[in-house]
Amino acid sequence: MILASATPLTLTLALGAAAAYAASATGSARVGAGFARVAVWLAWSMHGVLLAWGLWGSEPRFGFAPALSITAWLVGLVYAAESYIFPQLKTPWLLSGAGSAAVLLALLFPGNTLNASASAWLPLHWALGIASYGLFAIAVVHAWLMTRVEARMRQGNAPAGLPLLTMERLTFRFVSLGFVLLSATLLAGFFFGNQLYGATHAIKWDHKTAFSVLSWLTFAVLMVGRFRFGWRGKQAVRVLYIGTGLLLLAYVGSRFVMEVVLGRTL
Fold it and tell me: How confident is the model at residue 1 (pLDDT cuts 50, 70, 90)?
């Protein structure tokens, strides 16, 4: 149910994080980069506390919106850390806007309560799986920025920021790490599903499983193409977009249909 699990604490954290994200999205242009950086870290901190409460609080919940919220939080963390390592890397306002939207969406759709028979390790299993979402999401952001830089270079402009080859290396490092985590998550689900989800859980070939396997195969093709055949540029970016889209449909898409469209619990 919408806002079913909201408390004064979660409402305060969610609205505060959303406001701080929104402030950081406009702060660079109106106030300054320093204000925007402080606002991002404030938003990220409140967002993290909110996520921890949702997963390990008195009534743990999870669903498509919390999954997107964790993804946005991880993307923000990685990008903030990168901005300190590479000061010339500017945080796109789109990331802060996505963070604000993800927090509010998770407030409106907090997900279902966890099954009492589920393992205490299930939130960690989900977190690791969503971590792969975050890594592929940040890879997509880098690929998008890389495409923009390449287009400007073709037009004869010299855009400021990270060199194109550095951004490309970062993109595929995140793809590689995401592929490792996705592989581990799928293996854990196949071999330890009963222990994680409870004795009544049975592995079945549903939409979530099908899209997950298809995304894994797509990323495997990308990894082979990159490291064996030297794929780069638009060819590699297209495959990355396809694999990420399939992965998004696997969990977030299936849970959205179940929770919102059909109004059913899992």
Answer: very low
Pair of tokens at residue 152: 């400007």
Tokens representing 244 are 């990420």
Residue 75 backbone dihedrals phi, psi, to 5 degrees: -60, -45
Q: How many residues does the chain have?
A: 266
* pLDDT one-digit tens code per residue, 88-132: 666 666 777 888 888 888 888 877 776 655 565 666 667 778 888
How far apart CA 180 and CA 187 sit, in angstroms, is: 11
Q: Return the residue matching tokens 């694999």.
A: 243
Question: Last residue of some domain: 81, 112, 143?
Answer: 112
Residues 108 and 147 in one domain: no
Q: Tell me, yes or no, whether 162 and 228 share the same domain.
A: yes
Please count the other Cβ atoms lying within 10 Å of the Cβ belonging to residue 68. Answer: 25
Q: Is the pLDDT assigned to residue 255 strictly greater than 70?
A: yes
Write down the H helix ranges in the chain. 8-30, 33-56, 64-85, 93-108, 122-154, 164-197, 207-229, 233-248, 254-256
Find, among 113, 129, 112, 128, the residue nearest to 211 by Cα.
129
Single out the residue in 112, 131, 150 at which a domain terminates.
112
Torsion region of 113: left, alpha or beta (phi above 0 gives left; psi -120 to 50 gives alpha):
beta
- Alpha-carbon distance 113 to 110, whole Å? 9
Residues 62 and 123 in one domain: no
Tokens describing residue 237: 């970016």
Q: Which domain holds residue 197?
A: 115-266
Structural domains counted in the chain = 2
